[in-house]
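Task 17 of the worksheet. Students: predict the tertiary structure of the chain below and write it out as structure tokens. Keep your answer in the requested format; marks are given for formatting as well as content.
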Amino acid sequence: MTGRTEWPGDSPDSSRAEKELSPQEPAERARAICLRLLTGTPRTRKQLADALRKREIPDEVAEEVLSRFEDVGLIDDAAFADAWVESRHHGRGLARRALARELRTKGVDPSLIQEAVGQLDSEQEEITARELVDRKLRATRGLDRDRRLRRLAGMLARKGYAEGMALRVVRQALEEEGEDTEGLE
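Model answer:
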């Protein structure tokens, strides 16, 4: 005995455990699955639907449970997308393009993605890019100019920043350090 509450889905035999929990009531199983998943972290409707499908909850039951969860506010893809953008932009420095890609993989509706990433304007994105470059700049000292440019611009590209903005921000940072940026394209 581990001293903790066992939840459906905690063990490799989670499907069997959930079926034993209430073999006659798939709606109860679906609610339990959704509540357990939402306890750990917010999830999109698609993520929950995928989890229910994986656990062989009938589609019509899953749809009914998910709709009810939306009605009472336990599932809110718009709020999820807004919080995701806020968290991942400020926490990881991701640009709008990378944030949109992540939200698409989570099944968020394209119009909600556009609204959420629209919270970030180009100016805020450039400020964040500059902060990222400033933090990484010290680690590139001692390298030749071109290698520093590639490393810093590559870091920004991996975070979803457009090439033009990345090169402009890196070039400005290098100039402020006294690097000669003549001839950099």
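Marker's comment: Confidence is low (pLDDT under 50) at residues 1-19. The two ends are 64 Å apart (CA to CA).
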